[in-house]
Amino acid sequence: MTAAATGIGSSPRRRDGAELLTGRATFLDDHRPEGMLHAVVVRSEVAHGRIRSIDTTAAESAPGVALVLTGEQAARHAGPVPYFIDPAARGGNRADLRCLAVGKVTHAGQPVAAVVARTRHEAHDAADLVRVDYEVLPHVLDAEAALAQDAPRLYEDWPGNVVMHNRYGTGDPDARLAEADTVVSGEIRIARTTTAPMEPRGYLASWHGDTLTVHASCQNPHQLRWMLATTLGVDEGRIRIVTAKVGGSFGLKMQGHPEETLVALLSRLAGAPVKWVEDRREALLAGAREQTHRFRVGAMADGRIVALVDEIVADIGALTAQAGWAMPNMSATTLPSGYAIPDCRIELDIVVTNKPPLAAARGFGKDAAHFVMERAVDLVARDLGLDPAEVRRRNFVPSDAFPYRTSTGLNIDSGDFEGLLDKTLDAVDHPGVRRRQAELRERGRYLGVGLGFELTPESSDSPGTFVSGFDTTTVRMSVTGMVTVLTGVTSPGGGNDTGIAQIVAAELGVPLAWVELVQGDTDRCPNGFGNFSGRSMVVGGGSATLAARDVRAKLLAVAARLLDTDDVELRDGVATGGGRELPVPEVARALLTRAFAIGDIEPVLESTRAYKPGNIDHVPDEFGRIQPYPTYSSSLHAAVVDVDAETGKVTLVDYVMAHDCGTMINPSLVEGQARGAVTMGLGSALSERLRFDADGRLATDRFKSYLLPRAGDVPLLRMVHQVTPSPFTMHGNKGAGEAGVGGAQAAVANAVEDALAPLGVTVRGVPLTPPAVLALIDEARKGSS
Amino acid sequence: MTEIRLTVNGVEHAVDVDPRTLLVHAIREQAGLTGTHVGCLTGDCGACTVVVDGRTTKSCSVLAHSADGARVETVESLADGDDLHPVQRAFWDEFAFQCGFCLPGMLLTARELLESTPDPDDEEILRALNGNLCRCTGYNTIVAAVRRAAQEPA
Q1: How much is the mean pLDDT over chain A?
Q2: Entry's SMART domains (chain A) (predicted)?
């Protein structure tokens, strides 16, 4: 790599590297303004109950305490938290959600009161003195139990515990199932996991008169501003949100949490800056996924799949104003993934239980579709005695069929799924693995290989939400030629700022080092939607391109006059034309300081542009289907595992991901995203699981019991790239932030089943922890005896 | 409150601490060095790693009191002005971080490994890194960075 390689397709290092590597970067908890107080949230200890009374007397008189706030008191100052995605807008049930519970709690861990004190210790000590008297109500922790008519009701004015029931798909799957040569069915349980970024969530609010500044570890600064304006009744123009450095988020830090309003309110009432940072126990309350699927798949003898019926029960815990509750919708609509199956019926129940809410999570429900579909394909192969790779090949949407509308309505823009399959099989040396498997089986060892295809809809534009599928960027060149890019997309750590800077530098023909990025500041950046859905390079990069092209056009016009030629080129910070050279800063200075001499060119080197990708359609078709995604990444995963049948331990031996996210702006950043997502999928496939005790209290409340993958658990994740440009985005790029979670789960599960095929094991869920694997082996042995 | 003495990155600090004050909070809030991070407070993630009297230590699991008189080095001490330590350069070149929150632990652990084992094999690298969590990278690039740093002159 040469220092000059910074354009699209090259991998310059992270522009914020020195700051992060030396410890100079300022994360939320590093801010300590003068006079700052600390908040601690008092959380419900019961899963379901009415609040009879809250006694704050002892807490109020404890040392250092500035303020104790209950839900009743908070409700006098702050309105309901608006939904990031409103269930009512999608025909579902909603509830009035407050920053602190009023009257009733629906899960253990729900905020019921808050304490503000001089120091963290004083706040914790006082929080321990808050006495909450509950009338404990019967609770329900399991979504299937919550569906029963006589189940405890979380929200008493609802007809049941279902937020919404939806049906997706077209055709006549029942007729196709009846005609099929074989029908395989299964039940799959995907356990509750969580995103667990290394930096917990937190907020710091300060009021100066009637203006509010909030530093936040948050992905959506403009939406946070809008929401606070609503809940607090403050003019939006008087609120500034700064989210500069965020220590990972993965969806968790999307806006909509109760503590956002709470901390701003506490600061207002305390008359001082107030900071709250959740501890790890609080962070682990947030769920990422929990679903049960019951599916039937019909196939012909040649492996062609003709029908899919899937019934999904999604457990979202209690309802949340954050986007997390809506993820199961995407589990349904991402089926049948990249397979050409026109006859599908997906029934979805989104169910509330007395567990903490889901928060948005990388994968956003799409991961469950991949897991279920890839299990189904493997079961078809097993049933028909066919090679799982061949069954995939026979059912993929063919490369010449794009754009392709799926049975559930997604309009897949482009792809070459067979190409991914070929590359994966080649890279993993599929015949070689099969040979080794046979040799090891002779010696009583269990090696297995599993495939997982993933279709990843990205850069969403969903109706009924706080956000949209475009974004906005300003590109500004100063009188010295330095470039400032202000964009509405944010970076929680993935490095999209470097990618956007690369695009702008390339468009303007200036060195990358001249480009400065500003993100996550509502006073400086144009209105935007932040970070989610693998959108940052699609719409952040797209809008930056448009704005940079405007500035470029202006520079060319000015340089043409100065060089007295119409044929000007901008490269490496120099304008060249008519055999002469002029540094770009001189062109900028000429326009911005000698505008009258230059003539009739408006002396502005700045442009603000929005970019709307194509392929989005909210008008329901004759089947009621909409199309909320411009572009679809795809990937094929192969996992090779060694299963110890004595201990149940699964060891990853090899891993290949063939990845197609269209044009790559910075391939090293893309690989970083992919490896991170795969590793998250590996964790949920093998070790991660949030468990609750019978009373609904989180049992896995630290990293000793909630087991993230560690360095020694992850093999070299080998990356193979395929580039099928999207016809609907500026650079042909597709989202690259999420692909890997579902594919990794599926590939590992299929590999474990393949390894244990001699024992006749059938995998029915994740995680495949050692006890879970031993249980599968026991079950298979009992079944065969 | 009791006064303890800490030498942090060569600078002596006299700080008043509560018996419950953790070393990580004394370093961050009293010595004012916020490069050391709090990720879990249970000794599991390693974001709070510092070097105490020559050994990497999870500073969330040490009471400030018990570190009275100790010589502490934090991630801020790694670079010499604008000159990055070879481990830092290798992490930058290999894209061995994303959000950067885990970096204090990763960098100090990598440096300690290379000081005792200048040419570690992969197993030694993985064993050393196993005490530090990263949720962004999937670790591959971190391992590659340690390998690269081992090949560079210190």
Answers
A1: 97
A2: Ald_Xan_dh_C
Residue at token pair 């202000």: A486
Domain annotation covers residue A540: yes
Reference A686, options A760, A754, A771; nearest CA is: A771
Residue where a domain terminates, one of A225, A258, A283: A283
User: Any chain A CB within 8 A of the CB of B84?
Assistant: yes
In a domain, A292, yes or no: no
Residue matched to tokens 């799409």 = A366
Provide the number of CB pairs (under 8 Å) joining chain A to chain B. 167
Q: State how beta strands A131-136 and A202-208 pair.
A: unpaired
Same domain, A269 and A403: no
Residue A672 token pair:
């970083």
User: Same structural domain for residues A206 and A256?
Assistant: yes
Domain of A558: which CATH number?
3.30.365.10
Gap between the Cα atoms of B78 and B92, Å rounded? 14
Q: Which of A198, A684, A687 to mutate to test the interface with B (most CBs of B within 10 A)?
A: A198
A91 in any annotated domain: yes
* pLDDT tens profile B41-90: 999 999 999 999 999 999 999 999 999 999 999 999 999 999 999 999 99
Whether the CB of A25 is below 8 Å from some CB of chain B: the reply is yes
Contact map slice: B 31-50 vs A, CB within 8 A: 33-42, 44-45, 47
Q: What is the CA radius of gyration of chain B?
A: 15
| Structural domain span for residue A94 | 34-137+197-283
Same domain, A495 and A598: yes
Q: Which residues of chain A have pLDDT under 70?
A: 1-4, 785
- Helix or strand holding residue A269 (H, E): helix A258-270
Q: How distant, in Å, are the alpha carbons of A77, A247, B143 from that of A708?
A: 40, 16, 17
Reported as a single tens digit per residue, the pLDDT across A292-348 is: 999 999 999 999 999 999 999 999 999 999 999 999 999 999 999 999 999 999 999
Q: pTM (2 decimals)?
A: 0.98
**What total number of domains does chain A contain?**
3
Last residue of a domain, one of A246, A265, A283: A283
What is the DSSP secondary structure assignment for residue A778, as one 8-state letter? H
pLDDT tens digits, one per residue of B100-117: 999 999 999 999 999 999
In chain B, the domains with their CATH numbers are: 2-75 (3.10.20.30), 86-151 (1.10.150.120)
